[in-house]
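Exercise 7. Predict the joint structure of the components listed below.
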Amino acid sequence: MQEISAALFGKPEGIIVWQLIAATRFTIYLSLIAFFGGGVVAAFICFARISPSGLAKRVAASYIWIFQSIPLLMILFLAGLGVPRFLGINVDPWTAAALSLTIFTSAYLAEVWRGAFHAVPSGQWEGGAALGLSFIKIFFIIILPQAYRYALGPTVGFLVQIIKGTSLAYIIGFQDLMLLGKRWANSPIPGSEPYLIFPLMALIYFALCFPLSKIATVLEKKHSL
Amino acid sequence: MAAFVIAILIAAVRFWQIAILAQLLTSYVEFIRNTPLIVQLFFFAFGLPALFSYVWPFWCHALLALTVNFSGYFSAMLYSGFLKTPHGQIEAAKSIGLRKWIIFRKVILPQTLRSMYPSLCSQFIFVFLTTGVISEIGVVDLTHSGLYIDSRTFRSFEVFIVLTVLYVFLALLFRAVLHLIFSKKLNLGN
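Solution:
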């Protein structure tokens, strides 16, 4: 593949283009890990946030509040440098980046989903309660099937934020599109000038994010309130 | 602030659908919103100066990149806010002979700001939290000084905890200040 690309764009450029696209792989992996990991955590947080228990509600609310107020950069630094050095252990960039992005994602997704659950009219809850159903039953049988439609659009939209967020993971040495692009831009080889590399990287990120934001807009329109 | 003014202008052009300019700006906004801030930052800090061979201090590059970035986000929000303005109001304003610019400034903008300000605020906080990345090009901001202390003392955990607390505090402060400004302004509008 690298040869084809090199033949297509010429010697240094073709190799750079191919390497950047190959490194995008890790950006996508990290985004997916963060999305699914964060989704699972967010599901629990969100469930706690709307549960009838006062304590669970407060814990979930503070989790969301804290991690929405901390910059992703700080979460990355803490997970990648701060905590490992404090505990005297070695954490590889993969784990640290995945962990930080999972935390970041979970806080925002939990809030998005809570909004979706709130969009379901409260009469639905009361109706379920009037029928004598338990909280769990009302939640899974009545509320969830209605709420997921409201949540779909913003969730896909947030995927864009995650992909953009992964570009920060290079700070703790995560080998993704960002790190490789930066390395190429710093190299003195002609054909890898920063004004070529960075727009190229922007294009790759754009190619990842733009379809997602379009899908998100369509979904949001389709299921708008 | 500069970003905010630019954002209003961009959104206005898109709202009135001024021929080619509106399409260009729409793609500009989409492009900004779908690429990471850090890539834009590196492009403005290293790409453009290398292309046109000029030298600016770091903070100018950072300011430029952040302005471009913020304006993209804000204008997207404002634009969707403008679209929500009831059409009858614009027609009414037109029928009493107001010019487009006046209609925009006196009729559409105040209403949009009033209805959009919660989301504008949260968007601002979100963007503020991402500004730490400007330390990456050598601007001495909060994150940068934290990294400096860290590299001197090697006490990462303490440094980053303190930085985190500071950021949280600043986010709170901004939220409060924005709330104050907007509620004042909007009351005057009434």
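Discussion. Residues 7 and 140 of chain B are 27 Å apart (CA to CA).
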